[in-house]
Amino acid sequence: MHCLLAVCLLSSVAHAQLSTTFYSRSCPSLESTVWAVMKQAVVNDRRMGASLLRLFFHDCFVQGCDGSVLLDAGGEKAAGPNANSLRGFEVIDAIKARVEAACPGVVSCADILALAARDGTFLLHGPTWPVPLGRRDSTTASQSLANHNLPAVNYSLATLISTFARQGLSPTDMTALSGAHTIGQARCTTFRDRIYDKSNSNIDATFARRQQRTCPISGGDDNLAPLDVQTPRAFDGAYYQNLMAQRGLFRSDQALFSGGSQDALVR
């Protein structure tokens, strides 16, 4: 990866506070550069906005938003939740190359990933937000932490709450962040158990049959289905409407609306 150790040069700012103006003098073209590459990336592949948001989440949940998921060494890319499913590395490389041409040795890949996730969300009609900058890139990655920290698609509500709590995130944070599943697609292998489980009363039967057309009971593991069946290409509130209709694709999605503590917030 071109992003490897890009900010080791910045040892003098190791303890600096994050700031939205961190690069205002050292790389004033940073945000416009990220935006230009992301705009083209989403035009070329609309799914890329979701993929980069997920990449950012999988980076932050392991050992902080430090770019460790971008490292080839350390095995984080090969962790169970990441292997053969994370996408968008080439977009981060393209942004990094353009940023390096303008501001060599200045901007961290962790900051680039944070900006790319924000811009990808906005390009899919979601919100935008100011991104505090000044992160340093990690020199190490951790496969074991990725396997331990990243939430699984079959987690119960109680397990989800405890998993997010380890990151200092409340159940409200968890339910809000889960709304990112209003965009993106999932592989058949990640939701097959839910749609074929005859004992599962927490799934709309019509929805299950529809997903079965995409995801056979055997084979087709890499067939894709949208996480949000209503508006799969737009960042909106339809994800929560799906949960109220028992149309969450993952067990961990539907767990947020299952007669438990998060039902009122989902509504």
From TrEMBL:
PROSITE patterns: PEROXIDASE_1, PEROXIDASE_2, PEROXIDASE_4. Binds 1 heme b (iron(II)-protoporphyrin IX) group per subunit. Its cofactor is heme b; Ca(2+). It holds the Pfam family peroxidase. Heme b binds at H181. SUPFAM superfamilies: Heme-dependent peroxidases. GO terms for biological process: hydrogen peroxide catabolic process; response to oxidative stress. Substrate binds at P151. The record marks R54 as: Transition state stabilizer. Ca(2+) 2 binds at T182, D228, T231, D236. Its EC number is 1.11.1.7. This is peroxidase. It comes from Hordeum vulgare subsp. vulgare (Domesticated barley).
